Amino acid sequence: MDKIALILVIIGALNWGLIGLFGFDLVATIFGGQSAFISRIVYSLVGLAGLYAITLLFRERTEVK
């Protein structure tokens, strides 16, 4: 679950970077606009992954041996 959330957060960060630097929304371009149903699903999943990623800040770290 952590890896999926991290991948979605990275996708969101890259998309926001493209919007900020170039005014280009990759998700909207790929899926047919910001109001397209699939785009809204992707945006929602990225948002939920961001909320989930907050929990990673408060977890105890364990060393891998």
Automatic annotation (TrEMBL):
Statement: the UniProt record of this protein carries the keyword Thylakoid: no
Q: Identify the keywords attached in UniProt to this record, alphabetized.
A: Membrane, Transmembrane, Transmembrane helix
Enumerate the InterPro entries for this protein.
DUF378 (IPR007211)
Please indicate which superkingdom the organism of origin belongs to.
Answer: Bacteria
Q: Any signal peptide, and if so, which residues?
A: none
| TM spans (from-to) | 7-31, 37-58
User: Is RNA-binding included in the keywords of this UniProt record?
Assistant: no
Name of the featured protein: DUF378 domain-containing protein
- According to its UniProt entry, this protein's organism is Formimonas warabiya
